[in-house]
């Protein structure tokens, strides 16, 4: 099976995002979320980040996007994740306890092409066990994670990843833009 067939079949993939190596799959499939929880040895019920290919796809999953967020995304030089309060068309298993979702628009590279070809948002979580440091390069990924995902992308050394986690911003009607991680 290739990577797209794996995603369509509800499988998990290890792939280079625009930041670090990630574990992912179809963000609209609750079973994929459970599989990733198991692989990462993570408590179920924790939220995940999803990646979308463009602003049009972002609008498929967020009800209201204020102008200040559009401006922030347009000006962003590095990968920027936004936590939105009112997602739609996503399973509850992927959302935070407060009902929010973290979304990043991937503008280029392997992950962008993957999302485009899959035609749906992809989960992105670092390729580590819950509570452990984020692996910054492929060689840092634990062997048991490599063995437990359904598909590993063969771009080990020449990925489009930056090796740095994204900037995280939370948006709410009450507080506006709040920087969580710069």
Helix/strand structural class: alpha/beta
Q: In this structure, how is the largest beta sheet organized? A: 9 strands, mixed
Distance between the termini: 38 Å
CATH superfamily: DHBP synthase
What form results from the Cα inertia axes?
globular
- Number of separate helices: 6
The tally of strands reads 9
Task: Please give the share of residues in helix.
Answer: 25-40%
Rounded to the nearest angstrom, the radius of gyration is 15 Å
The succession of helices and strands, N to C, reads: HEEHEHHEEHEHEEE
Q: Taking all residues together, what is the mean pLDDT? A: 89
CATH architecture: Alpha-Beta Complex
Beta percentage is 15-25%
- Give the C-level CATH assignment: Alpha Beta
Strand order in the sheet with the most strands: 7-1-2-6-3-5-4-8-9
List the uncertain runs. none
């Amino acid at each position: 099976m290739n990577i797209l067939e794996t995603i369509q079949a509800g499988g998990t993939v290890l792939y280079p995002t625009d930041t670090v190596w990630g574990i992912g799959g179809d963000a609209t499939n609750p079973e994929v979320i459970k599989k990733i929880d198991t692989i990462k040895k993570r408590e179920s019920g924790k939220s995940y980040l999803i990646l979308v290919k463009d602003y049009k796809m972002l609008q498929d999953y967020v009800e209201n996007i204020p102008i200040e967020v559009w401006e922030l995304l347009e000006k962003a030089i590095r990968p920027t994740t936004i936590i939105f309060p009112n997602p739609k068309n996503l399973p509850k298993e992927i959302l935070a306890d407060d009902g929010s979702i973290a979304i990043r628009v991937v503008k280029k590279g392997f992950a962008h092409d993957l999302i485009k070809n899959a035609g749906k948002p992809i989960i992105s979580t670092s390729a580590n066990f819950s509570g452990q440091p984020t692996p910054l390069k492929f060689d840092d990924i634990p062997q048991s994670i490599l063995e437990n995902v359904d598909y590993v992308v063969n771009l080990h050394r020449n990925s489009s990843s930056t090796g740095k986690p994204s900037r995280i911003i939370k948006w709410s009607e009450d507080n506006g833009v709040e920087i969580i991680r710069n």
